[in-house]
Amino acid sequence: LDDALHRIIATLANKNEELQNFIETLNHTLGRVQVNSTQVVSDLEEEFDTLYSILDEMKESMTNNIKQETVRKSHELQNQLTQSTSALESAEELLEFANNAVTMAPAFRLTLKPKATDNMTHLMVDFSQERQLLQGLKFLPVPGAPEIVLGDCLVIDNEVTVAWRMPVEDSKIDHYILEYRKTKHEGLPRVKDEQRWEVVDDIKSTEHTLQGLRFDTRFMNFRVRACNKAAAGDYSDPVTLETRAFNFGFDSTSSHLNLKVEDRSVEWDPQGGKGVDSKVKGKENKGRSGTPSPKRTSVTRSPAPRGARDRFTGESYTVLGDTSVESGQHYWEVKPQKDCKSYSVGLAYRNLGKFDQLGKTSTSWCIHINNWLQNSFAAKHNNKAKNLDVPVPDSVGVYCDFDRGQLSFYNAENKQLLHTFKVKFTQPVVPAFMVWCGGLTLSTGLQIPSAVRSFQKTENGLGGSNSSILVNLI
Fold first, then answer.
1. Spatial CB neighbours of 201, under 8 Å, sequence gap ≥ 6
2. Residue ranges of the COS domain (predicted)?
3. How does DSSP classify residue 64?
4. Contact between residue 333 and residue 446 where contact means Cβ atoms under 8 Å apart
């Protein structure tokens, strides 16, 4: 009865959360309708104002043409009128002085046809077609909303391929816009999600692959819209895809004081911790002021947070990860600085002693690279080392299958297997790192690469007697 009641309560809680999210979505959509409506009206007024402006410019230009034609015709007719008047005066003088030798040449040379007519119809316009076009003016044709095809979407190797289709074929679609964002929530996107939408524009096909992603949240939301030459259509119904990966950082509370730790990097610092935990020896200054000498002031390290382990010390230049592995399969990568003299990468139980070095105890497993004096590349566990006859990679991939008790190291670039430990873990483990005279950069939020997953599947499918051929054991 209690189990049934708990299930009912859980179902009601989930339904309540869904309804709250739906109400927020409706309120958000309602608000956006008002905002978008105001914007569309403003855009429409702007378009009509532009059209009015063009018509006014055309009216002014055509009016000027009519005025110029009027001036031209008036000028030509006025010249003809002047010439005709002069010829008429010559003819009258001939009649009055018939015996005088007055030439009639100007009168006979005159043309009696006007050089310009009074017709102005060639400057008239017919707006019947334009009027018909304006009367047929409609809102822009908008493409329909695409449909994302979940069965064709793929999440692999920190890449996400999103595929979609149009419910009705539309030959006028020019391109698509894909939007995505990371989220911690499963199901429909939250209106008040903490992440903003990222935009990929001008996609010509009906699928797109996002590459080089870091999966630092468990889910991602996706939506897509179609665009023609005129406008963008509605968004598709959003979908949520799972992007599970192992995320962790360095636990700075565990690090050796000679290590400078940030969230994703650790670097050797020979000056680190100087003066910390030093104690003032000798008597206090007995001067008149009674104030201790500045040279004898002690610096005390602040106490570690409650429940935290002791820092590594001595020659154990170690730092642990801040997240335990208790089950499942996980993968991360580590890249050393080019001039790093010595470093180790592996796993350890959290109770690793503060003086213990990685690989020298029964509670830690690692590969160790030494570039100081004598170069070496070895796998270490329980104070035993196995030299690895492979090139030292520029970056190391670490694969842990807790349930199968398997810890493997790979060349992160070409996914070549470097070494595998077979372990029966008796308690949760944490990523562990050692660095001296150099630094390491950590990459998390990575899925298990398909090449590694395929290799592990093949290896685990072999019989027990044959598996030792591929797996290097210490």
1. 175, 177
2. 79-140
3. H
4. yes
> Scanning the structure block, which residue is given the tokens 């335990």?
324
Q: Give 378's strand partners.
A: 368, 387
Global confidence as pTM: 0.67
Q: Which helix (H) or strand (E) holds 51?
A: helix 2-96
86: tokens are: 């002069």
Q: What is the enclosing helix (H) or strand (E) of 102? A: none
What's the pLDDT tens digit per position in 428-471?
999 999 999 999 999 999 999 999 998 888 777 643 333 322 33
Task: Report H helices in 97-215.
Answer: 105-109, 128-135
φ, ψ (nearest 5 deg) of residue 142: -105, 135
Which residue, among 325, 333, 326, 307, has the nearest Cα to 253 in the 3D structure?
307
Two tokens at 16?
Answer: 């309540």
C-alpha distances (whole Å) from 8 to each of 11, 17, 21, 185, 326 are 5, 14, 20, 21, 30
Cα 93 to Cα 89: distance, rounded to the nearest angstrom: 6
φ/ψ bin of 382: left (φ > 0), alpha (ψ from -120 to 50), beta (otherwise): left
Q: How confident is the model at residue 106 (pLDDT cuts 50, 70, 90)?
A: low
Q: Which of 353, 357, 382, 361 is nearest to 370 (CA)?
A: 357
pLDDT at 5 (0 to 100)? 84
| Phi-psi group of 199: left, alpha or beta (phi > 0 → left; psi -120 to 50 → alpha; rest → beta) | beta
Q: What residues does 336 pair with on adjacent strands?
A: 440
Q: What are phi and psi of 239, to 5 degrees?
A: -125, 155
For the domain bounded by 259-273+308-470, which CATH number is listed? 2.60.120.920
Per 3-state DSSP, the chain is made up of helix, strand and coil in percentages (nearest 5) of 30, 30, 45
**Phi, psi of 419, rounded to the nearest 5 degrees:** -170, 150
Q: Which residue has the tokens 């050692």?
A: 434
Instruction: Identify whether the C-beta of residue 226 lies closer than 8 Å to the C-beta of residue 173.
Output: yes
